[in-house]
Design goal:
Structural class: alpha/beta
Strand order of the largest sheet: 2-1-3-6-7-8
Distance between the termini: 61 Å
Shape: globular
Helix content: 25-40%
Number of helices: 14
Radius of gyration: 22 Å
Oligomer: single chain
Order of helices and strands: HEHEHEHEEEHEHEHEHEEHEHHEHHH
């Protein structure tokens, strides 16, 4: 039996079992619940807690199901799936932050989007499913944008498992990310809304706090090295090579180096919270990680170390190419990296912020001041029957 056929059979069995249990649980009827599901963290994220509080003000009780699935936790993961099916049959709204195989394989009550050429144009209305993607912007390609490449799923696997199916609405960081998100989730662009994540507001508040308490310290500046995760085990890993070569131990450094692997690469939870070390760093060195957007919101300088960019343009691909948008902020060699780091950490006023602005572009255009409140208000207005006659709280004004 081929691998593809075996996966197809597994998907078919899962679809049958999931839908059978879901229909059974549906007999108890819908309750005033909003379900939050995460498979990459053992605790609900800041985004989830903030959205949960906003929905609770409108009469929906938040239910959080979080389990960081690892190979050794199959039994616990099975319990999570059973709980998820139970609450999907009870809840009125469900929020997910990644591809969720249970959600994708279920047959919900749906509505059609007329005139859409997207692959996924039958969208749930019971429950309403919100995809609150865990990363800002759309730097690298993902989801249905990166099929049939080493870092992505095959087209056949995407079809068998209905990957990224059943998102009623997809929340992105801003107008500049809408088109890429529509491609990634293979959904109508009208269903991608630039409401951003609650983390957006948190980062802006942290920036204000830092600006208010900033003082010139006597310590050396810090450069945070934070690469993206590489899902393909044979992929190049320039940051690992850089660390092996002892870049952080060069005597010529006038700054300290802090290494920060992607949480999933380090086996940790990935809740989408502010990365460790980012607040204390003056410069962030990354390759293709969405940490670039968090650094930007915090007012941190960013440098791209991309010796493998030709490979990455193919797999998984780039929505925004740093060599095209901000060539001065790109380093391909150790010497380039060292020279630019030393120069800008010594004289941050010479950093080319105009290029950083060009890279970020409209990634946050349209983002509100209180995303959690605005997401709940948006769903309230789109489906008023879900909430009864509770009044909508006014959104907080920008400060």
């Amino acid at each position: 039996m081929t691998v593809s056929k075996a996966k197809g059979m597994a998907a078919g069995v899962a679809r049958l079992v999931f839908n059978g249990l879901y229909r059974l649980f549906c007999f108890s009827g819908r309750k005033n619940e909003v379900l939050f599901v995460s498979r990459k963290a053992d605790e609900p994220s800041y985004d989830y807690l903030e959205c949960g509080a906003a929905f609770e003000q409108r009469g929906l009780k938040p239910v959080y199901l979080s389990q960081h699935f690892k190979g050794s936790s199959t039994v616990a993961y099975s319990r999570l799936v059973l709980k998820e099916l139970y609450h999907l049959a009870r809840c009125k709204v469900c929020v997910i932050d990644r591809y969720d195989p249970v959600v994708s394989l279920l047959n919900f009550k749906c509505e059609s989007v007329a005139g859409s050429s997207a692959g996924h144009n039958e969208l749930p209305v019971e429950p309403v499913v919100i995809q609150l993607w865990h990363a800002f912007g759309a730097f690298k390609k993902f989801g249905c944008q990166s099929l049939d490449v080493a870092e992505g799923h095959s087209s056949e696997e995407a079809r068998q498992f209905s990957i990224h199916r059943n998102n009623s609405w997809v929340v992105c960081s801003g107008e500049g990310a809408r088109a890429a998100f529509a491609e990634a989730f293979d959904c109508p662009i009208e269903r991608v809304v630039p409401l951003s994540r609650p983390e957006y507001r948190k980062l802006l508040e942290l920036r204000k706090q830092q600006a208010g308490s900033e003082a010139k310290g006597s310590g050396r500046p810090i450069a945070l090295f934070a690469p993206t995760i590489r899902k393909y085990d044979k992929a190049l890993n320039p940051f690992a090579d850089l660390e092996t070569r002892g870049f952080d131990r060069l005597d010529s450094h006038s700054y300290d180096v802090l290494w920060s692997d992607h949480p999933l690469a380090a086996g940790s939870d990935a809740k989408g919270d502010v990365p460790a070390g980012l607040l204390s760093a003056q410069m962030v060195v990354t390759d293709y990680s969405s940490i670039v957007y968090e650094a930007y919101l915090l007012g941190k300088m960013v440098l791209f170390y991309v010796p493998d960019i030709e490979h990455y343009r193919v797999s998984p691909g780039l929505n925004v190419d740093p060599e095209e948008m901000c060539p001065s902020l790109v380093a391909r060699t150790d010497d380039e990296l060292s020279n630019k780091l030393s120069a800008w950490l010594a004289c941050p006023e010479e950093y080319p912020w105009d290029e950083m602005e060009r890279f970020v572009g409209s990634a946050f255009e349209g983002s509100g001041c209180n995303p959690a409140e605005e997401i709940a208000a948006f769903i309230y207005q789109a489906y008023p029957g879900l909430f009864g006659r509770l009044e909508v709280a006014e959104a907080s004004a920008c400060v």
